[in-house]
Structure formats: C-alpha cells, structure tokens
C-alpha cells in the first residue's frame, strides 16, 4: 500500500496539471488552438467535463496526500 500511494499521487498530479492547462479563463476551448474569442460564456459540453474532472482530480490529489501523510 505504501508503494502505491506515491505512484498514484504522481499520476493524479500529472493529470491535474494537464487538465488545468486545458482550461483558459474567459476563453472558449477553441482559443487553445488559435481562434480568438473575446467573450465569456457558460461552460458547456467538453469544457464542463474538463472543469469537473479538474475538481475531482484536485480532491483526489488532496485525499491521496492526506493518506500518504497519515500512513
């Protein structure tokens, strides 16, 4: 179990970094690929899934860090 926690934490941290980099505040996902968008809209579809995956990854990272600290 003690060998699994650091490895899982590394995998979750890399996933969290990638998910945060995919998000751009105030911009649509298309601006990541070179399109311009100067307005803010609500999250829909893929952007909403990325947002909730980021929240879940962050919570999982914190839980794994606490477990690693306790055990």
Descriptors for this entry?
62% helix; single chain; 71 residues; 2 helices
Could you explain the architecture of this structure?
The chain has 71 residues and is mainly α. It has one domain. Helix content is 62%, strand content 0%. The chain is built from two helices and no strands. The protein has helices at residues 4-22, 46-70. Helix 1 (4-22) runs antiparallel to helix 2 (46-70). The N and C termini lie close together (9 Å). The mean pLDDT is 83.
Span from first to last CA? 9 Å
The figure for the number of domains is 1
Shape: elongated
Uncertain segments of ≥5 residues (pLDDT<50)?
none
What fraction strand?
under 5%
- Strand elements, count: 0
Q: Kindly provide the radius of gyration, computed on alpha-carbon positions and rounded to a whole number of angstroms.
A: 15 Å
- Give the structural class: mainly alpha
By DSSP (H or I, 4+ residues per run), the number of helices equals 2
User: What is the typical, i.e. mean, pLDDT?
Assistant: 83
SSE topology string: HH
Helix content: 55-70%
Task: Characterize the largest beta sheet: strand count, sense, and whether it forms a barrel.
Answer: none
